[in-house]
Amino acid sequence: MVFVNTHKCIGCTLCKQDCIVNDIVMINGKSHIKNETCVKCGHCIAICPVRAISSDDEKEYSMNEVKEYNDKEFSLDPEVLMNFMKFRRSVRLFSPKDIEEEKINKIINAGKFTQTSGNLQDVSYVIVKDKIQDLRKMVLETLNSQADNLLSDETTPTQIRMYANMWKDMYKNFTENPDGEDKLFFKAPLLIVIKSNNIINGALAASKMELMINALGLGTYFSGFLSRAAKFNPEIGKFLQIGDNEELVACMVIGYPKVHYKRTVPRKDVNITRL
Length: 275
Description:
Radius of gyration: 23 Å
CATH topology of the largest domain: NADH Oxidase
Helix content: 25-40%
Distance between the termini: 43 Å
Strand content: 5-15%
CATH class of the largest domain: Alpha Beta
Number of strands: 8
Mean pLDDT: 96
Number of domains: 2
Low-confidence stretches: none
CATH architecture of the largest domain: 3-Layer(aba) Sandwich
């Protein structure tokens, strides 16, 4: 439950005004949370000027995680942020260096504190380290099988045929030497799979996590090949413990970059419609 300390409450009504589910009423000039339609979004906790509102659920909604706002720690120059995003690159050349647990936790927390519709917080994560080769084998076997189907079909577009031939080469290289060339995960030491009941919630989390990955001096790219293989092979979903109502939203391949980029890259003009 979320509750109000009436001794602290000054009756400013900010929490009531900001409650999207209308779960707050004023009684004798003090805020009162009914806890009938509350989704525990935390807006009332965040907006209260005197810290009169809190959660009594220390297991899932610990007040120990709540931080007071200050300009130094919470503000970010917009030009620096824009340059940071411009400089971001998909990394496919990784150092063999392992990733510290502290950094993995920060990446997961970036997903944890990302907004979700209805505050469902329905995004979960699979950290793959020790079983990367097992997953790689399943994915490459699936892609190789798909490649045979695509290459035998005369209507398969040229670009897709290119990928199909690539998958066959990747599978051949793996069977000949599993520890050799890796064009799937590029010998990265870590994968994080994002799964969710709502694909938008998962995608938002993955986007915030990518920013944190880069801020930590790491690199990543999203493995579309794994996502494609998972659609055709349910065993991959079982391996990654994807629930019946969950979507595999993204697979982030993560490691310390072996290369360092020197500049940003050009982009096409954006297509904007103004109404």
